């Protein structure tokens, strides 16, 4: 049996992006790759790169102190190797998905906190050194200013977290330095959300992020890239200029900038007709990605590929009021190419 000619296969977003010097990837879940053939086929067709949706988080990798479980992550690494796809890592130090033992240990004084961070980062990076060359070392470290969706202490520049309480702001320096020592050529990324749109809260978060990274770099703390998560909301206005200014300033500071987790939340009062809903998603996705690419972003990830398994469908904190579900990813719940697919194709083709 001969294989179908390459030209007869539908060209995926990964290939379209690559023709234009861009890398396109998506967050993947190990279990679904193994159990849902349509899901696995979608990743083979569309994604040049993958990032584990949960398999790289602390609670997944070290559920019990000293006992590492890399099986779910290894499932993704094996798939990626077989399919010749690259993998990025997410996330070493994050206030969420921390097992109770780690939260408790972080409260037992700075020495103990440093020692568990060190052990976790060392062990995980030793494991992924040959396969993952870019990790989100610190995730979501900036405090949400007032006016964001998630309430936070408004006068804190950094998010209140067990790491901040244990070590103060230096936990960020420590995590980055530990990662550099553990894997000296690894790209060290700081990942952040709620920073892309044209709202006063996002503007304040942009200011806080720039102040933080300039401070880190001025003190010689190792940092190579900033990830903008790109969890967009149609309820919030978007304008290219603030995003362009942020990306430009980060690049002028010597950092790469990636879009790491893009998806789009529709509004609760979205139009009834699919065509009208999709037009809004298409317009926002194109505006966002084309702006990012024009400002020098070269890597774009969506947070999943299909609405079927998206956290925008399954997580009540971000889902649409039932029975409707967000149509905020490149493929709909039946793995059909959707409005965002077309917007990304157009943005990649024009880059
Ligand atoms: C989300 C996953 O998609 C969910 O399945 C999980 O329940 C919670 O985490 N920002 C991040 C990601 O950095 O790790 C989050 O992923 C989405 C928001």
UniProtKB/TrEMBL annotation:
This is Beta-xylanase. SMART domains: Glyco_10. It comes from the Bacteria. Its EC number is 3.2.1.8. Keywords: Carbohydrate metabolism, Glycosidase, Hydrolase, Polysaccharide degradation, Signal, Xylan degradation. It catalyses: Endohydrolysis of (1->4)-beta-D-xylosidic linkages in xylans. Belongs to the glycosyl hydrolase 10 (cellulase F) family. PANTHER family: BETA-XYLANASE (PTHR31490:SF88), GLYCOSYL HYDROLASE (PTHR31490). Transmembrane segments: none annotated.
